[in-house]
Write a structure and sequence with these properties.
Pfam family, one: DUF382
Oligomer: single chain
Protein name: DUF382 domain-containing protein
Order of helices and strands: HHHHHH
GO cellular component, one term: U12-type spliceosomal complex
Strand content: under 5%
């Protein structure tokens, strides 16, 4: 029973997809025929206009009269052909507000991330459970503990290397400042 239901749903989705393709194809064909009709009308008007201009030297002021005789508006002369981009635009579905907000967040996020990285560069996150571990507790009885010994998770961050690099930088900057003072 379940297998038949899943087969029926698959067939229904295939049928729906083919019907959608068919309607899209029919819509494209309708647009093409409309475009062809508009192009033919434009060609007719252009040919009539050319005939009028070639026969009468005063026919420069008459192009509007041609459209009025055929009961067409002035705008019908300037009907632009429908481009492929316009067709694609008509077929597109509107994007939801959530999608637009997500895209806007993606634009802003790198700036926030960079500032957060700068802020957190000098911070070491301490796990909440670290104080409950025996090796990290401060009140061990009978165990000698060095005062400046760092915890394991802090050592993994390489804070010692960072401290050394910072000390070296300060030494070099101080030395450079001394040289500048001596030279001046």
């Amino acid at each position: 029973m379940i297998k038949n239901e899943s087969l029926a749903t698959k067939l229904r989705t295939v049928f729906d997809a083919s019907a959608h393709k068919r309607t899209v194809f029919e819509k494209e064909m309708r647009l093409k025929t409309e475009r062809c009709k508009i192009m033919q009308e434009q060609r007719q008007f252009k040919s009539e206009r050319a005939k009028m201009l070639s026969v009468d030297p005063d026919a420069v002021a008459r192009p509007v009269a041609i459209g009025e005789e055929k009961h067409l508006s002035r705008d019908s002369f300037n009907v632009p052909p429908i481009s492929a981009d316009d067709e694609m635009y008509e077929e597109k579905e509107e994007t939801s507000v959530d999608v637009i907000k997500d895209k806007a967040k993606e634009d802003v996020n790198p700036v926030c991330v960079n500032s957060n990285l700068k802020i957190s560069s000098n911070v070491i996150l301490v796990p909440h459970h670290s104080c409950f571990k025996r090796k990290n507790s401060q009140d061990k009885r009978g165990v000698e503990r060095h005062a400046l010994e760092l915890l394991d998770f802090i050592k993994r961050f390489g804070i010692m290397r960072r401290r050394q690099a910072l000390r070296e930088r300060t030494k070099t900057t101080k030395a450079e400042l001394r040289k500048r003072v001596r030279l001046n």
